[in-house]
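A favour, since you know our structure tokens better than I do. Could you add the entry underneath, on a fresh line?
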Amino acid sequence: MATPFKPMSSPRAAEMATLSPEALRRSFLIENVISDGKLSMTFTDLDRLALGGVRPVGTAVSLANDPETGAEFFLQRRELGILNVGGKGTVTVDGKSFEMGAQDCLYVGMGAKDVKFDSADRSAKFFLMSCPAHATYPTTHIRKEDAKPLALGSQATANQRKIYQYIHPAGIKSCQLVMGFTELAEGSVWNTMPPHTHSRRTEIYFYFDVPENQIVAHFMGPPDCTRHMFVHNEQAVLSPSWSIHSGCGTQAYRFIWAMAGENQVFNDMDAVNPRELR
């Protein structure tokens, strides 16, 4: 039997002030999420979340099991969210195919055994987020054009944006996974300001469509001991329940947010007054 891989381990809040920039990035940043022609998942100790990505480049790529699941197949006791951050592609779940356009989302319920990713023109890029599940919900596809985005922010505060809520109680049903993405308007660069924490769940950010030679400064940590790191296109940041999560880019961008934990209420958050940030 293969030896299980050790999940990515996150420091405690009290350790944040002692971490070097390199240690901070090593502990919370996943630099290589999407690989060409192969799929690998990064497991974390934060609510047992796992994330990964793949760009099919000629042949279909299967969601293989990982010893870390401790199960006979990957989704035996897990559910999965998939969001396409590239061009046209196809996801096949137990023989049923779903055509995925740019920023389309697919939820795959617990128990699915055969999941494959393909792209005839090699343009699709699939981001995956998985968490433990206790019940099976239907595999469901939603296109970006069929979603009803929530408009927030303003040009005056440089945070005009649209929030696409895909997997949540009023949308695609799941056990505990909540997932969608945020799209900033041209000229807006701030996300999630004023910030907040989630005492009952973990969140992961995946930044994408960050233009070439542009960058995002991601802010995290306890409100009274914040840190920052610079994030590039198609990189992911782990956000523990005690950490704020906010960012400011040098140009407009998009980012996927995915959460799992005790509840699925989107606005279940602990607001932080910006004047209290340190």
About this structure: The chain is about 5% helix and 40% strand.
